[in-house]
């Protein structure tokens, strides 16, 4: 069976996901797309030689009888609306991060999914599908460095657009760590503090960059994450776990070591599309397979909610400068694996 996909949002990642679902992965075809920039949507499918229906309104894609499942790849504030619409239509939906703009918004999705009675939502947290993170988790789970005590992480983008604000460092960028570090440590956050070092001259006037986010987990692990979205030199994701008997570090993406012009060098990637290209392939193949089988297993609406509960506390901490509690309710049994 071929899963017929409708894609809402044909910008950067929308086009990437349309390409991979049409040209790289198995078991799916893109039959409908939508973007508020309709011409952009037309150009996106023409570029790939696809014959998908183009709609001006994403809700038409959700309702279309030709569409079995949805990919929501539009701007962050639109995710909740389209994900709720997909649940109401009883269709599986892969929603890019963040699931919604606040924990409250994510909770509405969780409640709607539970009321529907079956998992329909997978959140676009791709790092648990990244070979490097999988290898790191295996080392930790096998007890090779003893119990994790501290994590030192960095999330660096070379640059961000003018409309990127200080809170987006949390909701749009740190949200990846908020999910993957829960998955990695099998723990939840207890409290958070945000501190602001000297701001880089490369940031636009309204953005405070970099930021350092400091967490304590329920098991007492201390985590520091540097978010630096105008780091200028590349797209760089770092994660080092300090355990009782050793240290385990996220592998660097493979790169040819060059000796040239009196320098020894390796290339640093500059774009998220390249850094996680394989992880995106694996996460979307999993969504296609699981939606076809009728049982989603990837990052859930609850994971999206848990990340947003932490994100809300981080934003509060950005503004207060204080240590803020992270209060995640008990997970409903509906989300037991
Ligand atoms: N998982 C990841 O690593 C990752 C990477 C990049 C982006 N993202 C997420 O994917 C989403 C898109 O990011 P992007 O970089 O492609 O941004 P983008 O600006 O390139 O594309 C977003 C597209 O959504 C369209 N859009 C906005 N509102 C819409 C609506 N109501 N209906 C239909 N289309 C609408 C815009 O016109 C635009 O074409 C964001 O939520 C972002 O956080 C995730
Ligand atoms: O900060 C960016 C992240 O590094 C990417 O992985 C994407 O999620 C992108 O949307 C964010 O703006």
From TrEMBL:
Residues 137-328 form the Gfo/Idh/MocA-like oxidoreductase C-terminal domain. GO terms for biological process: inositol catabolic process. GO terms for molecular function: inositol 2-dehydrogenase (NAD+) activity; nucleotide binding. The keyword Oxidoreductase applies. It catalyses: myo-inositol + NAD(+) = scyllo-inosose + NADH + H(+). InterPro entries: Gfo-Idh-MocA_inositol_DH, Gfo/Idh/MocA-like_OxRdtase_C, Gfo/Idh/MocA-like_OxRdtase_N, MI/DCI_dehydrogenase, NAD(P)-bd_dom_sf. Keywords: NAD, Oxidoreductase. It comes from the Bacteria. Homotetramer. Involved in the oxidation of myo-inositol (MI) to 2-keto-myo-inositol (2KMI or 2-inosose). This is Inositol 2-dehydrogenase.
């Amino acid at each position: 069976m071929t899963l017929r996909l409708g894609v809402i949002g044909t910008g950067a990642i929308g086009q990437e996901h349309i390409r991979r679902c049409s040209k790289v992965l198995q078991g799916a075809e893109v039959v409908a797309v939508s973007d508020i920039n309709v011409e952009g949507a037309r150009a996106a499918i023409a570029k790939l030689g696809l014959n998908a229906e183009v709609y001006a309104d994403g809700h038409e894609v959700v309702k279309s009888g030709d569409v079995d499942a949805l990919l929501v790849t539009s701007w962050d504030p639109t995710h909740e609306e389209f994900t709720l619409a997909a649940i109401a239509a009883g269709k599986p939906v892969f929603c890019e991060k963040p699931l919604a703009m606040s924990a409250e918004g994510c909770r509405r999705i969780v409640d709607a999914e539970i009321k529907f009675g079956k998992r329909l939502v997978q959140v676009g947290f791709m790092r648990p599908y990244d070979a490097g993170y999988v290898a790191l988790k295996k080392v930790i789970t096998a007890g090779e460095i003893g119990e994790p005590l501290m994590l030192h992480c960095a999330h660096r983008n070379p640059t961000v657009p003018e409309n990127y604000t200080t809170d987006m460092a949390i909701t749009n960028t740190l949200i990846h760590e908020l999910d993957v570090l829960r998955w990695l440590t099998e723990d939840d956050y207890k409290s958070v503090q945000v501190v602001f070092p000297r701001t880089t001259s490369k940031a636009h006037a309204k953005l405070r960059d970099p930021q350092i986010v400091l967490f304590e987990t329920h098991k007492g692990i201390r985590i520091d994450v540097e978010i630096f979205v105008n780091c200028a030199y590349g797209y760089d994701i770092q994660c080092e776990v300090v355990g009782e008997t050793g240290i385990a570090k996220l592998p660097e993406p493979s790169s040819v070591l060059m000796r040239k012009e009196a320098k020894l060098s390796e290339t640093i990637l500059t774009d998220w599309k390249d850094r996680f290209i394989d992880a995106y392939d694996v996460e979307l193949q999993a969504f296609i397979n699981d939606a076809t089988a009728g049982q989603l297993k990837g990052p859930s609406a609850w994971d999206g909610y848990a990340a947003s509960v932490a994100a809300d506390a981080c934003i509060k901490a950005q503004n207060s400068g204080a240590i803020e509690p992270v209060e995640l309710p008990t997970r409903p049994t509906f989300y037991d694996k």
